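ok so for the tutorial part 2 we go from a plain amino acid sequence to predicted structure tokens. step 1 is just haveing the sequence, like this:
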Amino acid sequence: MSGVPAEAAEAQAQGTRERLLRAAAAVIQEGGWGSASVGAIALRAGVAAGTLYRHFASKAELFVEVFRTVSQREVAAMRAASAHAGSVPERFEAVVATYAGRALRNRRLAWALVYEPVDPLVDAERLAYRRDYRENMARLLREGIESGAMPVHDADLAAAAVVGVIAETLVGPLSPVADVTRSEEDIVAAIVSLCRRVVGLPTGTDGARRPRPRPAPQRRRRRRRRESAR
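step 2 — the prediction. this is what the tokens look like for a chain of 230 residues:
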């Protein structure tokens, strides 16, 4: 029985820690890292400001935990998209669309996770997140290369290029000060098309029937004269 109070205290501490993590994530989602002061997080969690330091050595450590939790959720979503039945090109397209679509549906949080300046400790986690995403993409491309479904030859280089294309293309649409007029569907479709080109896959317009060029005026006149002479 002597262990019960200790177990209860541990459970209570874990509950408070998780509440602080959820509160920090909510504040960051609304206003970015800059808005996530200790006071704002504590207020959202319903605890005193000093409580945060009983569970985290610093605010930066709390930020690292928040980033790790959210980024792992995003990587899991992309792995799920990659695991769906279908050809490798179809799964590749699903992964790209999942990444871009989820970012566009939660723009402020995505901007904070990928672009907003933040503590160096979080930057280190950010690099690890991009590396994890790149390695998952390379694994999928390697599967496609081995099966003959993907025309690229260097899976690692192509994966890095795809991640770069997505990240750079989303800068404008995700920016908190951007005035985006294109729909999310159009942006995702454009990013998917770009990424397909990066790995050598045809896009929706490749192979389409091109309109025949109109004949020059001289040729049109000669053709009319021949037709009238018949």
